[in-house]
């Protein structure tokens, strides 16, 4: 009997780079489709990370539809996988074990020149490794993924310099109560596309004051047009603002570029002189419902945003979306080149590098519903 699924990749580092972005939990739900493999990781039903490994990332990709309907089938998420009209088998597997398998050879620390940006500022704890301390995997390594039938292990075979290593990872039945955190695509009230570096640096700046709450504010009519604030930590609230500058410049004055409120309450503007720079946002669409007025304001657990730090560091761009219910989606565009390194890491995010595979990593966050809930979180963290 032919295996249900077999795929061969000539660059295991591409797979590792994308999957490590969602390595904040131990287990992932995997779904195999004719167009690629979908990985979903969630924690407490308040954060979810989604990665779709398109078949174009593999040198060969074979999917043999099961003859009988499998009991564990799931309708793919169209926003992540593209339009799908069929259901496909899926299972749960240890993503920690997958990442350890993919880096079984060539475990070398990245040199300082190749580290993702701001590695010394923002740190996250993941099940696999430090968010900004991925191993420099070697090139010219063949990686074969195989899933024989429903209930079988997920087999990963790494071949390098004539040495072949096969790991068979136990698969589990998915939770019946599982599923994606719903993002209402017909009720999107905010869509902001910008360089991922801007978001990464803003979160890193706020992280220095150890906040527990992230407050997001956006308005298309008045300043601050887009601002992120950290609150609930041992210091006063700090804020990073992104302005709309008609002259396409970044200055250190209040209301332009970044403005930070220090622990003593004084305004401290960035000491950067005016310079010509790319527009901060490529797309800026904010249309709050009448009940919100002219400004969107939502709060999220800051610790959850830190779990997306790895994706922020390797991505070129990020699409920030929010719906009427307050669900926040951060969809990262990761452009992979042919030199084993994400373009965003090697030559700077937002700068177009060699044409290579492009993949997306999607994070979804559930908002804090009210001030009372936020106060409970701040109080629990203080204890």
Automatic annotation (TrEMBL):
GO terms for biological process: DNA damage checkpoint signaling; DNA repair. It is found in: Nucleus. Residues 64-83 are annotated as: Disordered. Signal peptide: none annotated. InterPro entries: Rad1_Rec1_Rad17 (IPR003021). It comes from the Eukaryota. GO terms for cellular component: checkpoint clamp complex. Keywords: DNA damage, DNA repair, Nucleus. Belongs to the rad1 family. This is DNA repair protein Rad1.
């Amino acid at each position: 009997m032919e295996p249900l699924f077999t795929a061969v990749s000539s660059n295991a580092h591409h797979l590792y780079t994308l999957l490590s972005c969602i390595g904040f939990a131990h287990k992932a739900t995997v779904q195999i489709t004719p167009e690629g493999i979908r990985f979903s990781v969630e924690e407490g039903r308040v954060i979810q990370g989604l990665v779709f490994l398109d078949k174009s990332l593999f040198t060969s990709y074979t999917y043999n539809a099961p003859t009988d309907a499998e009991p564990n089938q799931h309708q793919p998420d169209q926003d992540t996988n593209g339009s799908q009209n069929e259901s496909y088998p899926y299972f749960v597997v240890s993503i920690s074990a997958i990442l350890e398998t993919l880096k079984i050879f060539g475990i070398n620390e990245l040199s300082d020149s190749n580290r993702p940006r701001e590695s010394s500022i923002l740190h996250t704890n993941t099940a696999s490794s430090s968010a900004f301390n991925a191993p420099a995997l070697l090139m010219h390594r063949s990686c074969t993924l195989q899933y024989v039938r429903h209930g079988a292990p997920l087999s990963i075979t790494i071949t390098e310099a004539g040495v072949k290593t096969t790991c068979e990872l136990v698969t589990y039945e998915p939770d019946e109560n599982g599923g994606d955190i719903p993002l209402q695509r017909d009720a999107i009230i905010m869509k902001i596309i910008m360089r991922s570096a801007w978001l990464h640096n803003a979160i890193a700046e706020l992280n220095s004051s150890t906040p527990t709450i992230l407050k997001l504010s956006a308005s298309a009519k008045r300043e601050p047009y887009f601002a992120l604030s950290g609150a609930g930590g041992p210091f006063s609230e700090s804020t990073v603002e992104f302005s709309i500058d008609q002259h396409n410049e970044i200055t250190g004055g209040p209301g332009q570029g970044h403005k930070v409120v220090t622990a003593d309450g004084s305004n401290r503007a960035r000491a950067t002189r005016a310079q010509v720079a790319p527009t901060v946002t490529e797309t800026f669409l904010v249309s709050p419902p009448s009940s919100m007025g002219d400004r969107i304001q939502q709060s999220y657990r800051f610790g959850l945003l830190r779990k997306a730090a790895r994706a922020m560091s390797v991505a070129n761009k990020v699409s920030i979306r929010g719906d009427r219910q307050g669900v926040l989606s951060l969809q990262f565009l990761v452009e992979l080149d042919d030199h084993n390194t994400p373009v965003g890491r090697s030559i700077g995010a937002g700068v177009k590098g060699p044409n290579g595979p492009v993949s997306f990593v999607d994070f979804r966050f559930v908002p804090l519903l009210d001030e009372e809930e936020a106060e409970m979180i701040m109080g629990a963290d203080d204890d």
